[in-house]
């Protein structure tokens, strides 16, 4: 049973997150170890394993990036343990530019505003790439899958940038 | 808001059927025990009517004294009077000495903290167990029967070793731990059930030695922790410490103080803190080691200035927790205040200002955690089969593995809902390598040295292969208590590698067994009897649950042969359980478990399918 099946869904990038979250509650009520507190060791152990699977699947379904990665994995394209590098030079140039901006942000007059601008720009990029990702995954061809994999690699960079912006923001703002 | 007066006449079990279960708040400064009795949840008093048990243990040559009596000895006999021991659980001796340089205790030369007292050597787990024993005894004598189990609370921010230490202490005290419950979640249960609220709440818990902030979503009986943060070494004790520094500064008491004088100053600081909770000035006077008397005046303004940086730290954690939950201050419906240190008006005021709402304080902040734990214990013990309450907790700190260059690679990020399991693959770097060292750490920092070391273990039995050919899959599993389990397998051969998990600063299983043995009078015999009883109880449980399952689902889910095999195993187990061979019973249970594994899995899958059949099914 794959993670989509566990949540009674067909494998698709487009899912109804409200439904996912209500299914999650149903599955929690059925598999949480606390529901087996007076059961045998075997039942408790099984509940922990099943419930861990439910939580793992839920984390995957909630995140567009993990969801796309999982769909590709089901199609035989595994990005988990790869060492593939990005060859798109214009993307790499853009990355370097953003990184430079991030590292120089403290020198700006309003560093927090600058961070926000940078964050907005990257999030806009993420949104547009996710739209493209969806259309690539819908095609279900070997070529489209490979292109989707490339896009996921790029998205990972973008999400990492967002996380770094967040860290910087935390460091700069004394709340 | 009144305290939990939820009577369910139709559902409450007849008294003799009711399984006794308690909630225990094992606090840094104070501990409490609570239970649900005839629909009401109350904390249990001792025989002179005191509900609060100070978490202080005084060791004499005759044994240990716990609570108020022990506390009185603190200034007379500081080296033998251990207080705030919760701060030492799961920590290294070096950590403790660095963090609290003025402790009056005699630590022995070892990595894990061991203190020399008049009756011998004691470790933090044993000291905590002394406190738990008193509460267990109090509950059993009040309720008139043996306890079936207990829910013991821990700060949400406690890491794996601190949780393990707490659980070990409970085991040592002879308690059956139904669950380790996070303190803020317990507080939310106490408030949440009472008001039947739905929405996002924040629980701000500032105890004697720990600070926690949790953001929870309440919805139809489900308490879902969205994020949690805090500092497991920040609390009211730190308020006392800055006051002591201030007093010394004002009286020019520099250099080393005698242990007694230090204790006196600490007591004075606590007093001043309490006075300043309802008055604007505190006047202190005392005599130093040279019999010279001193007077110090502390104003509320000054006190607030002293503790401001500490309170600010707590608010910083609140901000991060909100961010982790992807929420803003405006989303918070209520803020629940927990812990004695929230009695300091400045704390309440700052928290109120931060969340832009006035915090809830209607349940006694000292009792609210124990009360919530008791409600959960009642449900877990099976006294409320129709309860739809469910707690979804999270991992408070990221779990990682040490990689090349002393870096921590995160395997499970913080705020992941537990239970959770994650696998990570490793390979060998030398030809013919048959063993591998794995270092598990917990914390957010990049460098291993800045994280907490949880365990180092060696994977053995890897089949010898060329470098990089072996694929070892290490699975990290965190259970509902937040405790970590590790298992490993070599993938190409399916060889299960044995793991020796050595807790970095805790106790190993055999040490606990030894201490348990030592604590019983007729050690060996009692121990054997206890272990036999445990196996018999488990055998009975296996029989009961499996028989019920067979009656319900065998026809639909098992072939005649499969059913026959399980039934034969059960009959054998029943025979074994009548005897006194605990190893044979254990083997019998394992055999039945193996025979019924597939059945148990099919049943769980069936229950999921049934739940879905009501929904509009999107078939694959």
UniProtKB/TrEMBL annotation, chain A:
Q: Which residues form a coiled coil?
A: 123-154
What role does it play? Answer: Co-chaperone involved in the maturation of iron-sulfur cluster-containing proteins. Seems to help targeting proteins to be folded toward HscA.
Name the family the entry cites. Answer: Belongs to the HscB family.
Q: What is the lineage of its organism?
A: Bacteria, Pseudomonadati, Pseudomonadota, Gammaproteobacteria, Alteromonadales
Q: Where is the J domain?
A: 2-74
Q: Which InterPro entries match?
A: DnaJ_domain, HscB, HscB_C_sf, HscB_oligo_C, J_dom_sf
- Presence of the UniProt keyword Transferase in the record: no
- Its protein name is Co-chaperone protein HscB homolog
This protein's UniProt keywords:
Chaperone, Coiled coil
> Could you give the subunit structure recorded for this chain?
Interacts with HscA and stimulates its ATPase activity.
Q: Which Pfam families match?
A: HSCB_C
From TrEMBL, chain B:
Q: Which InterPro entries match?
A: ATPase_NBD, Heat_shock_70_CS, HscA_NBD, HSP70_C_sf, HSP70_peptide-bd_sf, Hsp_70_fam, ISC_FeS_clus_asmbl_HscA
Cite the PROSITE patterns for this sequence: HSP70_1, HSP70_2, HSP70_3
Identify the keywords attached in UniProt to this record, alphabetized: ATP-binding, Chaperone, Hydrolase, Nucleotide-binding
Give TM regions: none
Keyword ATP-binding assigned to the entry: answer is yes
Name the domain of life. Bacteria
Q: Does the keyword Chaperone apply?
A: yes
In alphabetical order, the GO MF annotations are:
hydrolase activity
A Pfam entry, by short name: HSP70
Query: PANTHER family per the record?
Result: HEAT SHOCK PROTEIN 70KDA
Physiological role? Chaperone involved in the maturation of iron-sulfur cluster-containing proteins. Has a low intrinsic ATPase activity which is markedly stimulated by HscB.
Q: Into which family does the record put it?
A: Belongs to the heat shock protein 70 family.
**Name of the protein this chain belongs to:** Chaperone protein HscA homolog
- This chain's source organism reads Paraglaciecola algarum
């Amino acid at each position: 049973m794959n993670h989509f099946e566990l949540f009674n869904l067909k494998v698709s990038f487009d899912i109804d997150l409200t439904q996912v979250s209500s299914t999650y509650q149903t599955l929690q009520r059925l598999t949480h170890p606390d529901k087996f507190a007076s059961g045998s060791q075997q039942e408790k152990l099984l509940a922990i394993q099943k419930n861990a699977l439910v939580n793992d699947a839920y984390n995957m379904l909630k995140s567009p990036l993990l969801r796309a990665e999982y769909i590709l994995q089901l199609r035989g394209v595994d990005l988990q343990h790869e060492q593939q590098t990005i060859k798109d030079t214009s993307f790499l140039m853009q990355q370097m530019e953003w990184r430079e901006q991030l590292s120089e942000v403290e020198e700006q007059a309003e560093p927090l505003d600058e961070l926000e601008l940078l964050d907005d720009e990257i999030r806009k990029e993420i949104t547009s790439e996710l739209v493209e990702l969806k259309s690539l995954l819908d095609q279900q061809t070997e070529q489209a899958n490979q292109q989707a994999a490339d896009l996921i690699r790029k998205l990972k960079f973008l999400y990492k940038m967002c996380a770094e912006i967040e860290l910087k923001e935390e460091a700069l703002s004394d709340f | 808001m009144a305290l939990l007066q939820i009577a369910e006449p139709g559902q409450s079990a007849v008294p003799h059927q009711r399984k006794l279960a308690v909630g225990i708040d094992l606090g840094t400064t104070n501990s409490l025990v609570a239970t649900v009795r005839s629909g009401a949840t109350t904390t249990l008093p001792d025989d002179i009517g005191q509900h609060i048990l100070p978490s202080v243990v005084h060791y004499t040559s005759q044994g240990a004294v716990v609570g108020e009596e022990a506390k009185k000895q603190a200034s007379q006999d500081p080296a033998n009077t251990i207080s705030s021991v919760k701060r030492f659980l799961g920590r290294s001796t070096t950590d403790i000495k660095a963090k609290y340089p003025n402790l009056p205790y005699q630590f022995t030369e070892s990595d894990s903290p061991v203190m020399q007292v008049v009756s011998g050597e004691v470790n933090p787990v044993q000291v905590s167990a002394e406190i738990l024993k008193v509460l267990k005894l109090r509950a059993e004598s009040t309720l008139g029967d043996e306890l079936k189990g207990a829910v013991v609370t821990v700060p949400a921010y406690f890491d794996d070793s601190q949780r393990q230490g707490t659980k070990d202490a409970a085991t040592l005290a002879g308690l059956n731990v139904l669950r380790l419950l996070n303190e803020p979640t317990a507080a939310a249960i106490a408030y949440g059930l009472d008001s039947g609220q739905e929405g996002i709440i924040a629980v701000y818990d500032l105890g004697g030695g720990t600070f926690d902030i949790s953001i929870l979503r309440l919805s139809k009986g489900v308490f879902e922790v969205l994020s949690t943060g805090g500092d497991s070494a920040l609390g009211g004790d730190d308020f006392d410490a800055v006051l002591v520094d201030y007093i010394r500064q004002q009286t020019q008491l520099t250099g080393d103080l005698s242990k007694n004088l230090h204790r006196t100053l600490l007591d004075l600081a606590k007093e001043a803190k309490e006075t300043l909770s309802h008055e604007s000035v505190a006047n202190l006077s005392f005599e130093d080691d040279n019999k010279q008397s001193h007077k110090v005046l502390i104003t509320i303004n000054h006190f607030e200035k002293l503790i401001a940086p500490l309170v600010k730290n707590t608010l910083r954690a609140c901000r991060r927790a909100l961010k982790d939950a992807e929420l803003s201050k405006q989303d918070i419906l209520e803020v629940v205040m927990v812990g004695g240190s929230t009695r300091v008006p400045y704390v309440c005021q700052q928290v109120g200002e931060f969340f832009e709402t006035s915090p809830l304080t209607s349940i006694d902040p000292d009792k609210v955690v124990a009360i919530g734990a008791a409600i959960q214990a009642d449900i877990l013990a099976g006294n409320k089969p129709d309860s739809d309450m469910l707690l979804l907790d999270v991992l408070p700190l990221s779990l990682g593995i040490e990689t090349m260059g002393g870096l921590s690679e995160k395997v499970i990020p913080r705020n992941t809902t537990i239970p959770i399991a994650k696998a990570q693959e490793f390979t060998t770097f030398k030809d013919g390598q048959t063993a591998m060292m794995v270092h598990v750490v917990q914390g957010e920092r990049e460098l291993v040295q800045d994280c907490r070391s949880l365990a180092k273990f060696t994977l053995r039995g890897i089949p010898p292969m060329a470098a990089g050919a072996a694929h070892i899959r290490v699975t990290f599993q965190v259970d509902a208590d937040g405790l970590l389990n590790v298992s490993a397998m070599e993938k190409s051969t399916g060889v299960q590698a044995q793991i020796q998990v050595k807790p970095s600063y805790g106790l190993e299983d055999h040490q606990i067994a030894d201490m348990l043995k030592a604590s019983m009078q007729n050690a060996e015999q009692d121990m054997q009897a206890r272990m036999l009883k445990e196996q018999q109880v488990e055998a009975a449980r296996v029989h009961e649950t499996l028989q019920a399952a067979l009656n319900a689902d065998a026809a639909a889910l098992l072939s005649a042969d499969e059913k026959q095999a399980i039934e034969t195993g059960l009959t054998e187990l029943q025979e074994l359980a009548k005897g006194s061979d605990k190893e044979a019973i254990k083997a019998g249970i394992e055999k039945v478990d193996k025979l019924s594994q597939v059945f148990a899995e099919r049943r769980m899958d069936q229950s999921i399918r049934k739940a879905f059949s009501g929904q509009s099914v999107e078939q694959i």
